[in-house]
Amino acid sequence: MLFNSVRQETEAICQPLSNEDYSVQPVVFVSPVKWHLAHSTWFFEQFVLTQFQENYQVFNADFAYLFNSYYNNAGDRVLRANRGLMTRPSVQLVYDYRAYVTKHVTELLKQNQNTEIQNLVIIGVNHEQQHQELLAYDIKYILGNQPFFPEFNCTYHLSEENKKEGFLAIGEGVYTIGHQDDSFCFDNELGVHKVYLHSYSIANRLVTNAEYIEFIESGGYSDFNLWHAEGWDFIQQNNITAPLYWHKVKGEWYYYNYNGLTKVILALPVCHVSYYEAFAFAEWKGLRLPTEFEWEVASDQLNWGQLWEWTSSAYLPYPNYKKADGALGEYNGKFMVNQYVLRGASVATPHQHSRKTYRNFFHPNLKWMFSGIRLAQ
Known about the structure:
The chain has helices spanning 2-14, 33-52, 63-67, 91-111, 115-144, 209-217, 229-237, 275-285, 292-298, and strands at residues 167-170, 173-177, 193-197, 200-203, 246-249, 252-256, 261-263, 308-314, 340-344, 360-362, 371-372. By secondary structure, the protein is an alpha+beta fold. It folds into two domains: 2-144, Four Helix Bundle (Hemerythrin (Met), subunit A) (Up-down Bundle); 167-372, paralog of FGE (formylglycine-generating enzyme) (Alpha-Beta Complex).
């Protein structure tokens, strides 16, 4: 059953950690590992079990307050910045909570074939898979900012971009955008609509570390002409001079990549760049970032799947977009402001989420996710 395999995979991701790693929250946008494990469990308890299992007894009445994320319709919650203050409940109690809820959802699915229940479980499964990828980001941030850069056993490894740089030409025309079959998608991938695109070209590969080092060494971080005003202010105020996890040691670039601090591999795609940096790099090259529609139209011809790729598109609703009533309606719609769309997938993306219509979105200053650059012209 997909539900059980996803629940097991989440725990497998965390297995190499020590108990001390579970409660750390170094910055506000990183959530503790323990919180992810409990929140993805609360989701099933809140939206499935309490609604559909007769006489269901919640595991702990306080957990709804501790592990709700942003669902205002579901009640009060701990502020995001305070998630790392919770040394209690213990790691073991959180795993007990997971086992309790997993058992009850499994039993409910065996007893009741109600379509509404099945649809809610599918949403919950996809929600947990999103948190699996967030776990990859947050664990890397937690470990990658420690003094001795500890190793972490994982499968999140990039491949070298060995293709010679080239551009794929896409003709002018009217194209259909959005999710068009009966498989699962999130509501922000709907509704299906037409867009008109001028002819354009899009790079056949991602920007590499070697190319990004050229940008750095040529003074890219000190030339305000390349940057949006907001981006320039941000890198100045935060003293940003390279991608996240990069360190210059005795004249050579190193980075943290789960294997400790290692030399930057030049042929790998550059990772952990913000929208601000992606835009500035494109300006430096005399090129630009693709729109999310250009990306989707060209996607069948691209070798995507290594990194989420910044687009120049603001995260906005599609025509005829409709959000669900109640708490589940808060899932995507209320974030459609001040964020940019990333397309593709990354080495940490669960397979079912690697589809050409998937719309990832983040604030333009963030770079702890697995984000890269593909250029267009």
